[in-house]
Amino acid sequence: MAEEKKAQASGVWPKVKPFANGGASGMLATCVIQPIDMIKVRIQLGQGSAATVAKNMLREEGFGAFYKGLSAGLLRQATYTTARLGSFKMLTNKAIAANDGKPLPLYQKALCGLTAGAIGACVGSPADLALIRMQADATLPAAQRRNYSNAFHALYRIVADEGVLALWKGAGPTVVRAMALNMGMLASYDQSVEFFKDSLGLGEVATVLGASTVSGFFASSCSLPFDYVKTQIQKMQPDAEGKYPYSGSLDCAMKTLKSGGPFKFYTGFPVYCVRIAPHVMMTWIFLNQIQKAEKKLGL
């Protein structure tokens, strides 16, 4: 009986482990990156440069403002990254099995990344909406602030005030952004590892750091335009007549292009890149450490 239970457990854990490990590594990385992400959102909302935003936040709102929305950020990682990394591992394993155990070519890894990004974004969209609103709340006039106390309060209020489907407001650009980010991140990461390790002969630590930085840059470049549109859609408020400034993602993109040109989509790119690259790097580092710990424990 004991052996049967052990066999059942061992059969369940390998399937659950990629999801649990992915979520845990993403949440740990978020705890470190949250202040940078907060500054990035404020820049996109037109509050000035990174230095100006950081100085004003510290002076007017205190140090705790840099971690405003952390609960939503952790919830987002617990949903988005759990689903993204877990499904990516499952998809690549199935693809490798279908490929007779041979390593996957780059385009197949990119397709797995695109699919995993879409799955993760659909699952994590409600938490992402809560995060954006909590981060942007302090920038609104006092009468328009939502004053969410935490992520779960935000989700409750959104459902109560706007309906269940409002949890997926801006889900379209969120999904597209996640697909673009994962394609840029995974494709460039694999190529960079080969370059740093095989061509330059760097060690494991230098290879991971270098490849993660390159991966973060390309992930940022591919995803920031979609992230900008997503942020504008998720934080918009109706005017006195009840009309929203944008009818949808395409309308937002066209109006942004007309008013600010293509570079408007890259508002806050340095901070966004600095935020994405370390998060990618730390997610992989934390994931590696978690996997090592599991091996020591025999999990």
Automatic annotation (TrEMBL):
UniProt KW keywords: Membrane, Mitochondrion, Mitochondrion inner membrane, Repeat, Transmembrane, Transmembrane helix, Transport
Q: Which gene encodes it?
A: LOC111302804
In this chain the Solcar repeats are located at 17-94, 104-195, 203-293
Signal peptide range equals none
Organism annotation: Durio zibethinus (Durian)
CC per GO annotation: mitochondrial inner membrane
UniProt topology in membrane: Multi-pass membrane protein
Q: Report what the protein is called.
A: Mitochondrial dicarboxylate/tricarboxylate transporter DTC-like
The cellular location(s) given in this protein's UniProt record come to: Mitochondrion inner membrane
Family of the protein in this entry: Belongs to the mitochondrial carrier (TC 2.A.29) family.
